[in-house]
Hints:
68% of the residues lie in helices and 3% in strands.
Amino acid sequence: MADGFVPLFAALLIILSATVVRFRFDFMEPAVIVVGMMTLSTFFALFTVERWHFGLSVEGFFLITTSTAAFVLGGVFAHRCLDRPTKKIAVEYLYAVGDRKILLTALFMLSMAALNLQSMYELSVAYGNHEGYLNVVRTLRPIIERNELVFDRWISYRSQLAQAIACGFFYMFAFNLIFAGIRRWHLLIPTVCYLPFPILSTARMSVFFFVIYIIVVALILYQKKNQFVTAAKLRAARYLIGGGLTFIAIFFVMGALTGKTISEERTPFVILAHYIGLSIPALDELIHHSTLETNYIGSHSLHGIYRALQKFDPDMPSVPLFDPLVTFVGIDTNVYTALGHYFLDYGWLGTLLMMWILGAGYSLFYGWIKHCRKNFALPIMLYGIFCYPLFLISISERVLFDLVGTTFFYTLLLFWLSTKIFFRKVERRCDSTD
């Protein structure tokens, strides 16, 4: 049964190798990330074929390989538009924030976290929690997974505001450290104060998004300082792998907090294969057994637009938020990679076009950041917070689901306000010390 996955894995390895060479060993390039994630998911699928008894058809093979290649070609197009030598950046400033402002910001964030905790505690009590605040996450997570609970919008607003503040302070800390070697640890206090928010969200993906932001922002700044030379790119690749391993450790810790423990049957490899690799065979099942569930355009990928329109017109139709389950031997899933949503809504050619557009769009954004010599703080921060769909593209669709809607504009506004309120540049002195 593994016959279909062996050639797919080999084909993706070839595409990955060619992509890495084409983009000059820059492992932060969007195309490299996407092909790498597709290859990783196929790897996990390949080694669990016999366990869960699934297969891969010729149609599935060509949909995955051609769509992945389309993303790469979009990236190549963007690379040709912006392909020019990166120039050395002369940074003559650092970021400084007063201790009083940092303390007040930290207290403000902890106050918002306390409000979120209280709101969620009251919800958990209504759903049977009688063991206090420490049992809030364990009580609410199964209910959220069954799509029986949606958080109050003010919980979401407070979380988004805290995220913008934390991301801004981390950027300032990373900039000072990378460009001047100055460790102003107090700048990380608001970032640490943000940690309760993703934990209270009960979703491990919230932590994943923040870890991705930290890794991407730090590595882009590191490569900008070193003019994206090959040595810096390879060192960044090692840090990227280290960050991935760190997230895996956090993933299992948070799983334990919500009752998802490791057992003899659910080994770490099996758990990772479930989350990372099962979407590939599920996609193959989808393209052979898909049916048109609604007559509405983009009903599987444009949830954000439909949710926004419903705020203005309650009579707007609702589209299914969760996809139907596909069942294999002893396991099921309802994630089909990003390609599944595009295929259902736009067909094969539409999927190829969508992947090309995403490849070109993300690569243009990344290329602009690479060559931007001043005022690059906000672009790097926004790229860091919006690039996580690249790391999830082999699992589920997040670009249209998360970024097309009102949340996108809230994030833009809050990040812009964060730079205006907290960012203060001071002249860099040659004799600066830690």
